[in-house]
């Protein structure tokens, strides 16, 4: 993992807390999807770490596929206009799809994705996210499995980046203001 250095302000969610929470969510998913074949859909790149730990905590048979999507628009905020950079390899007709995300911020990425997947004839589309910022929500998204609700602060680590850095931290933390001001 990256060196914390002076870039981080504080640890918001520790590696232990993440591990325990993913085990708890996996137990719920095991129960809800008993007897079904679930397709876990990871949203690159942020969800890579959640996916790799979550799939190992699950007991129901699960497949994995990935999409990379990019929000058009200037700046760091997503605009809600989404472009598929890498599509699924899997035909999801009749499949039970569980989207795996690292964070829901404005909700624009996921509301677009849920509509897109539903139009492909999935039997069900649900969402699992490690983090959610309730204060930042611009659109309503129905999330079945939420790890932690967090304040509206800029967070990095465990998949989450700032300018592609810090994704490899084993915990979720906040950046010192000097990092994103400079
Ligand atoms: C981040 C994050 C979510 C999305 C949430 O991805 O991983 O996918 O933004 O934002 P929203 O709810 O406001 O739409 P990003 O677009 O930064 O790509 P990345 O996963 O490759 O970092
Ligand atoms: Mn992402
Ligand atoms: Mg990002």
TrEMBL record:
Pfam families: Pribosyltran. The keyword Cytoplasm applies. GO terms for biological process: GMP salvage; guanine salvage; hypoxanthine metabolic process; IMP salvage; purine ribonucleoside salvage. GO terms for cellular component: cytosol. Its EC number is 2.4.2.8. The keyword Metal-binding applies. It is found in: Cytoplasm. Residues 15-162 form the Phosphoribosyltransferase domain. Its cofactor is Mg(2+). Pathway: Purine metabolism; IMP biosynthesis via salvage pathway; IMP from hypoxanthine: step 1/1; Purine metabolism; GMP biosynthesis via salvage pathway; GMP from guanine: step 1/1. GO terms for molecular function: guanine phosphoribosyltransferase activity; hypoxanthine phosphoribosyltransferase activity; magnesium ion binding; nucleotide binding. It catalyses: GMP + diphosphate = guanine + 5-phospho-alpha-D-ribose 1-diphosphate; IMP + diphosphate = hypoxanthine + 5-phospho-alpha-D-ribose 1-diphosphate. Keywords: Cytoplasm, Glycosyltransferase, Magnesium, Metal-binding, Nucleotide-binding, Purine salvage, Transferase. Belongs to the purine/pyrimidine phosphoribosyltransferase family. This is Hypoxanthine phosphoribosyltransferase. It comes from Pseudokineococcus marinus.
């Amino acid at each position: 993992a990256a060196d914390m250095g002076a870039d981080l302000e504080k640890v918001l969610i520790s590696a232990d807390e993440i591990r325990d929470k993913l085990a708890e969510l996996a137990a719920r998913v095991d129960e809800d999807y008993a007897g079904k074949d679930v397709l876990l859909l990871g949203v690159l790149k942020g969800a890579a770490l959640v996916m790799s730990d979550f799939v190992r905590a699950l007991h129901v048979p699960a497949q994995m596929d990935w999409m990379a999507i990019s929000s058009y628009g200037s700046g760091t905020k997503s605009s809600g206009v989404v472009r598929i950079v890498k599509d699924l390899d899997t035909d999801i007709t009749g499949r039970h799809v569980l989207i795996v995300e690292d964070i829901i911020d404005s909700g624009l990425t996921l509301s677009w994705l849920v509509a897109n997947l539903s139009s492909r004839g999935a039997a069900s589309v649900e969402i699992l996210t490690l983090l959610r910022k309730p204060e930042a929500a611009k659109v309503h998204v129905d999330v079945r499995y939420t790890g932690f609700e967090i304040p509206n602060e800029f967070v990095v680590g465990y998949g989450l980046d700032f300018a592609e850095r810090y994704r490899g931290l084993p915990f979720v933390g906040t950046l010192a203001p000097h990092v994103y001001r400079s």
